[in-house]
Structures are given as structure tokens and as C-alpha cells.
TrEMBL record:
Residues 356-436 form the DUF7586 domain. Gene3D superfamilies: DD-peptidase/beta-lactamase superfamily. Residues 12-334 form the Beta-lactamase-related domain. Signal peptide: none annotated. It comes from Phycicoccus sonneratiae. Pfam families: Beta-lactamase, DUF7586. Transmembrane segments: none annotated. This is Beta-lactamase family protein.
Length: 455
């Protein structure tokens, strides 16, 4: 896809404005549509000084917590291979730790109550210790839980250190080797590494009240590395955005990716409406009725962001070498807004794609006195309006057998009940009767229908 010159000008201007307003040494960003990087831009110099080396879309920045999404996908690949269950206790795979009772799913969704940070010095600015020093059974103050597992969302960097250790035990090699061989290499993400390599931005802090800089330390996080170690570029991170948008190159099934992006626990900020939640390794948002997934990242000297619209796959990635600034929070939305306003997503023309064998099921049905409509849409039978009340899509799983795909009826069985002559009598949806007329006495309505009928 080629975007218009006017759109590029507006995007470049938005990026430059954010760099100046936020006093960011350098910032790079990219937009993804249809699985491709359709725009990228970079502003500033890597050292934050006039005449310094300019940033570009092949400059490495530390992605921070976006690292967790790679770890999460590798854990789900283990699940899909039958090597673990999300309900497994952690100690079923990594015995002898202080986190043994927490489940794999609770670690992935930050709902295990595990403490957010380590007991030691600020782990993001100091070299990391090994797993045994973090959560081993023999440690004087091992990492533990702050809350009862399953009670609430509580973001935990330590929890993803545990998942990284799970990958190491399961594969018999380092977590980064697992990520590299299972994801980075197959996706062609050759510029994503555990330490800076080639052209890379230094981590910098900008003084809040003066235009001066302070270098931030760079190190190996040890056991905590799975929580935020990886470095990447706009080009590479855009490939990961395309992955989240559905272009998984066969590395993860569509069903598993959708499962990972389901909101498992809301992010409950006191006094604020619920707009964010956490899935399995991915953050998810509901903004004005539009669902997004992705993740943010921050380490001393760096800020990063990845956000993808789940309704079409448009995505944005941002990378900057500054410890703190508020403008990065709105930059992703601003860039996506320009793309959507100036370059509306193409509209696929309607074509007749249904089959006539569902005609006997479409039309008006009644659940008691309430009225609903069944439609044939592609390969699915749609009862009501998905997203409204109990409206759902249903997929065929056998002769006259269907299963719900949405909302209240997700996973619930729908059975077409026929008369002796083969014509359709009624629908049985998880024991509820749907009849062609309200409370049809000939449709075996549970509880029966009063002999006097409607009066």
C-alpha cells in the first residue's frame, strides 16, 4: 500500500511535534496496515545533541515490557503442543520455587498476586541475579505474593521472570534462545536482540527543569530479563504488530491469538472507568467501542509502544530513548488517527458467499414472546446481533449441530430439532427453545403451553 504525500506530511509533523513537546532525544515510529509497514519516521539525534547521529527506522531501542508478549506467545505454543495446561500450577513445571502455587494462566494475566518487583535494588538499573536468587526455595526473602491468586489484576514483572524460567526448563535452553528460534528467526526479525547491536540509541534521562541529559545504565537483567530485556527497531517491531494483527506465519493459530487477546482481568484504577484489561501476555483496551491489543514498554532511558486495532489489523509502533515523558502516551493514538482520517481502510465489496442449505433456518424465531432473527452469514448462522444482548454467531460442528462463538453463548450448543418428516420444528439453544411462533405448542416447549393458549 502507498499512502499519499499529504498523509506522510501530517504523520511526520505529528512525530516532530511530539519529539519537541516532550523534549525527547530521539523518537521513531511506524504504521502497519495489511501486514505491511506503510509509513515510518524518525526525529532527533541518538545522543540528543545537535549534529549527533540521526535516528531512523533501523535504529535499535530497548522495548522494555513488550518483551513479555514474546514470552507469552512461546508459553502458549507449549500449551498448543500439549506440553502444559494453563491451569497447571507453576511448580508442576518449575519445582522448588516460592511461586509454585500460582497457575500458568495467572502469571500470564497478572492475576496471581505475585509481587511487582524484586526484593533487591532497582532491578532495571542493576545487573540481575539468577533464578535461584530471585525465587529459589532456599533464599532468605524469595519473591512471593502480595494478594490471593485470582483475586485481582496486579502487574508483575517477577511473574514474567517466572514464565521465562518455565520456558528454559521446558526447552532446556535460555529463554532468549527460545524466543529467537521460535519467533524472531521465522519472522525475519534479525534486528531484535537481548543486548544492543549495531546502530542503537543510548538510554537517556532528560532533566525535568533543564535541557540537559544523563546517560542511563545498560545491563543484562538476569532472571528478570524476560520482563523487559529485548531491543528492537521500528522495522522489526512492525513485523510483530503484523503478527498481532493476524499475520502469524503459521507460528500460532488464529484461535490461540484470539484467546490471548481476550480480556481476562480488568485494570481497575480507583475512580477511573474500565477501559483497559489484560489478556494472556497482551494488554487490551476498549476505546470508544474499538478493541485494541498490544503492550507498552519502559526501561530507564527508553519508552516503547505497540498497539493494533483488532477489527482490521491497523497498528502503530513507537520507540524513544528517554526515561519519562507524557507525550508518548498520546502519540500512538495521534498517528493512528491521521492514518484513519486521511487513508480510510479499503472497503471489501459484497459478494454472494452464502449457501442455500441454511435457508430453512433463517428468518424470525421466538424465545418465549421475544423476537429474534436468524441470518446466514458466510459459513455461520447468526442469531440476533452479536455484541447486543445474547446475539451470537454459530459454527456448524455436525449434522444439525452448532456451537456459539460470541458473548453469552460462547461454547454453548445449538441443535436443530426436526419433525418426523424432516422439516424444522424448533431450535434448542443450551436447553432454551426457539420456535417460529411464540410458545408454539407443537414445539415441545419445556413446562408446556397452557391449553387455552393466548387470550
Amino acid at each position: 500500500m502507498t499512502i499519499a504525500d499529504r498523509t506522510r506530511t501530517l504523520l511526520d509533523h505529528a512525530l516532530a511535534g511530539a519529539q519537541r513537546e516532550g523534549r525527547v532525544p530521539s523518537v521513531a515510529a511506524g504504521l502497519v496496515r495489511g501486514g505491511e509497514l506503510v509509513w515510518s519516521g524518525a526525529v532527533g539525534t541518538l545522543d540528543g545533541r545537535a549534529g549527533g547521529p540521526a535516528a531512523d527506522d533501523d535504529t535499535q531501542y530497548r522495548m522494555g515490557s513488550i518483551t513479555k508478549t514474546f514470552v507469552g506467545v512461546c508459553v502458549l505454543r507449549l500449551r498448543d503442543a500439549g506440553r502444559l495446561d494453563l491451569a497447571d500450577r507453576f511448580d508442576a513445571h518449575v519445582p522448588g520455587s516460592s511461586l509454585g502455587a500460582v497457575t500458568v494462566e495467572q502469571l500470564l494475566s497478572h492475576s496471581g498476586g505475585v509481587q511487582a518487583e524484586t526484593h533487591g535494588p532497582w532491578w532495571e538499573r542493576t545487573p540481575g541475579d539468577g533464578w535461584d536468587a530471585l525465587a529459589g526455595a532456599g533464599v532468605a526473602t524469595p519473591a512471593g505474593q502480595r494478594f490471593r491468586a485470582g483475586r485481582r489484576f496486579h502487574y508483575s514483572n517477577v511473574g514474567f521472570a517466572a514464565l521465562g524460567r518455565l520456558l528454559e526448563v521446558a526447552h532446556g535452553t535460555g529463554w532468549a534462545d527460545v524466543v529467537r528460534t521460535e519467533l524472531l528467526e521465522p519472522l525475519g526479525m534479525t534486528r531484535t536482540t537481548t543486548r544492543p547491536s549495531g546502530r542503537a540509541a543510548p538510554g537517556l534521562a532528560v532533566h525535568p527543569f533543564a535541557d540537559v541529559l544523563l546517560p542511563e545504565p545498560e545491563h543484562d537483567g538476569g532472571a528478570m530479563a524476560p520482563a523487559g530485556q529485548l531491543w528492537t527497531t521500528v522495522r522489526d517491531l512492525s513485523r510483530w504488530a503484523a503478527f498481532l494483527g493476524g499475520d502469524t506465519a503459521g507460528l500460532l493459530s488464529t484461535e490461540t491469538l484470539e484467546e490471548m487477546c481476550e480480556p481476562h482481568h480488568v485494570v481497575d484504577e480507583v475512580g477511573q472507568p474500565w477501559t483497559g484489561a489484560h489478556g494472556l501476555g497482551w494488554q487490551v483496551w476498549n476505546v470508544d467501542g474499538v478493541r485494541y491489543a498490544g503492550h507498552g514498554g519502559s526501561m530507564p532511558g527508553f519508552l516503547a509502544g505497540l498497539r493494533v486495532r483488532l477489527d482490521g489489523g491497523d497498528g502503530v509502533v513507537t520507540l524513544a530513548n528517554t526515561t519519562s515523558t507524557t507525550v508518548m502516551r498520546g502519540l500512538a493514538d495521534r498517528l493512528l488517527g491521521v492514518l484513519h482520517d486521511e487513508e480510510p481502510a479499503p472497503v471489501e465489496p459484497w459478494v454472494a458467499s452464502g449457501t442455500a442449505d441454511l435457508l430453512e433456518l433463517v428468518g424470525t424465531w421466538h424465545w418465549g414472546p421475544s423476537v429474534t432473527t436468524a441470518r446466514s452469514v458466510g459459513e455461520h448462522l447468526v442469531l440476533g446481533e452479536p455484541g447486543t444482548a445474547r446475539g451470537s454467531r454459530f459454527a456448524r460442528v455436525g449434522e444439525d449441530e452448532w456451537v456459539g462463538l460470541d458473548g453469552y453463548n460462547t461454547g454453548e450448543p445449538l441443535r436443530v430439532v426436526r419433525r418426523a418428516d424432516g422439516t424444522v420444528s424448533h431450535l434448542d439453544l443450551a436447553s432454551f427453545r426457539f420456535t417460529r411462533t411464540p410458545y408454539d405448542p407443537a414445539a415441545d416447549v419445556p413446562g408446556g403451553v397452557d391449553d387455552l393458549g393466548w387470550t
